[in-house]
Design a protein that fits this description.
elongated; transport; membrane; disulfide bond; mainly alpha; translocation; 0% strand; Mitochondrial import inner membrane translocase subunit; 2 helices
Length: 86
């Protein structure tokens, strides 16, 4: 078959709608997690790192840890609230 064929590579059958849905859900969850980590990283860095250098000071390290923990906790509270409303 040529490269314009409608069959997937390998000539196998197309995945079922359920399999496709699971793949989409997995990709969305991964994208959400990456976006969440990036947001927390930027916000906590801006809040906790006053003078960037080659290493973190003790107060900077504990600030980042507390900041990250608060974001995780807040996200959990919001998620539980949204899912119990449904």
């Amino acid at each position: 078959m040529d490269s314009y064929s409608s069959q997937p590579m390998g000539g196998g059958a197309s995945p079922s709608p359920e399999v496709l849905m699971e793949q989409v859900k997995t990709q969305l969850a991964q994208a959400y997690a990456e976006e969440f980590i990036e947001t927390v990283r930027v916000k906590c860095f801006d809040k906790c790192i006053t003078k960037p250098g080659s290493s973190l000071g003790g107060s900077e390290s504990s600030c980042i840890s507390r900041c990250f923990d608060r974001y995780i906790e807040a996200t959990g509270i919001i998620s539980r609230s949204l899912f119990t409303q449904r």
